[in-house]
Specification:
2 domains; four-stranded parallel beta sheet; alpha/beta; binds 3-phosphoglyceric acid; Rossmann fold
Length: 302
Amino acid sequence: MRSIRNIISLREISRKEKNLKGKVALVRVDFNVPIRGNKVLDATRINVAYPTLRLLLKKGMEKIIILSHHSDPKQSLAPVRKILAKNFSPARVHLLENLRMGPGEEKNDLNFAKKLAKLGDIYINETFPDSHRAHASIVSLPKLLPAYAGLRLEAEVKNLSHVFKNPPRPFLFILGGAKFSTKLPLIKKFTRKADKIFIGGALANNFFKEMGMNIGKSLADRKKYGLKKLARNPKIILPEDVVVSVGRKQKTKTADKVLKNEIISDIGPKATATLFALVRRARFILWNGPLGKYEFGYGGAT
Ligand code: 3PG
């Protein structure tokens, strides 16, 4: 997706489709949310899809079939279905089961995409966070049906496109979350584009580890990425202190003092103050991913 001009907004649907009455929309969303037991721990990703779902119903769509994956192929989306049922009639808005429960989605299997295509008349991509995945519901399915960008996807692309058009400076890039392998190319790219890059979340743990520091039981990618050299880049700022937890107990300490039974759960107050100063100075901020384990109550810095 090179520019906003290359995507067709959902707003244009009434002009493009003659009659929406009685039609079924397949909406690919990102309901890959934290779930414990049968409880959704954070519903942000569900809530952000509502404007697109409501707009489709307002435009006269008979039914919406929602498609989503969960990173864990064994995780059912039933707890998400319960939340949706509080907001929409299940007769009109129906959520299919985790797309990754079978192999077709991740293999970008055309037959799997064809089976999905049979369920609806139009396709809407409302999943910016998954659009880098060459999977069946992202890549093959939109080739089989008239395809549109959901409101959120459109907004994300529109906002992100400012990055490539000479953004005001200082330009601060804040990067958190996990899955180092997918984020390393971003870090490398933005060492050329941004003025400062603040790295938190589990991504910082990979840096700490490769710099020879103990990260205890904290989440980190197992692979080595040669980060010692990257950490010396003056644009990169790592948290000087962290909040660690052992069971329910938590402590703040400098990042080099983490013990082997501790889990780094958030950035610490000094790091938060550093980030706050950077945020105040910045004239353009790009932010991807949480700075701590917000779904387990460590959302303070984020
Ligand atoms: C995410 O949470 O980053 C997206 O939903 C993508 O999930 P994935 O890394 O399992 O493809």
